[in-house]
């Protein structure tokens, strides 16, 4: 009996030692393959000029997933029962899937943003769907940080940005600026045009090519509407737009070109005797009713 028990014990110990050796060999091979794949992914992402943080996180995630898979495979090859591991792993996977759905969505949205490259740090962007406009400060795998024009730092999930319309104001080197300038019908169109051209030519950030254009857009109810078109570097667009509109207004005032307010001429019908004695004529402008009366008023 003692010999049989000793033989059974040795057989059991030998079986476990065999399983441990097989598990170790398969596990070492799995780790080696995981490290090789990790290096390949890392080099591929670095060659694609992904940021260092993105490369590091992505390569580590792939590496640990492959090591975990290698562990399960090694247990199965060594003869261990992996049914319980598979069941527990499936439950954990389902739970993590529901819990990390938003995280995964932001992660993949971040990858798509890196591949598509609709924006990058330093760009001035507008997100109309989110009501945000500002300068991109940083883009990570899960979120993007933008400093708005009023100085607020906003962290936006990548999923929201990926689904939004993105207007990159710096995507091209030059951007067009347009104004509509109304002048009175009594003002000289040529004088107004020459004055505006002079202001545009004197500004250092107005491009010579494409050439600025000033033309009559419309004969409005109260004004002759001129459309002013010129180009400026995208990085200076907002500043130039603000500056030149003020300078054009001041220059037109100095040149004697009137920029009228909306006005209407109103004729007052009075009894003939009263009209003859009063001699009333009136006009309604931006200040209200202006009336002139004769000597009998």
Give an overview in words:
By secondary structure, this protein is α+β, with helices and mostly antiparallel strands. The protein has 4 domains: about 1-100, Helix Hairpins; about 120-170, SH3 type barrels (Roll), CATH 2.30.30; about 175-255, Alpha-Beta Plaits; about 265-295, no CATH class. The chain contains 8 helices and 11 strands. The chain is rod-shaped, with a radius of gyration of 38 Å.
List the helices and strands and how they pair.
Layout: H1 2-47, H2 52-78, H3 83-99, H4 101-116, E1 124-127, E2 132-139, E3 143-148, E4 153-157, H5 158-163, E5 167-168, E6 174-183, H6 189-202, E7 213-219, E8 224-233, H7 237-254, E9 264-266, H8 272-278, E10 281-285, E11 288-292
Antiparallel strand pairs: 1-2, 1-5, 2-3, 3-4, 6-8, 7-8, 9-10, 10-11
Helix pairs in contact: 1-2, 6-7
How would you briefly describe this protein structure?
This protein is 51% helix and 22% strand. It is built from eight helices and eleven strands. Strand 10 (281-285) and strand 11 form a beta hairpin.
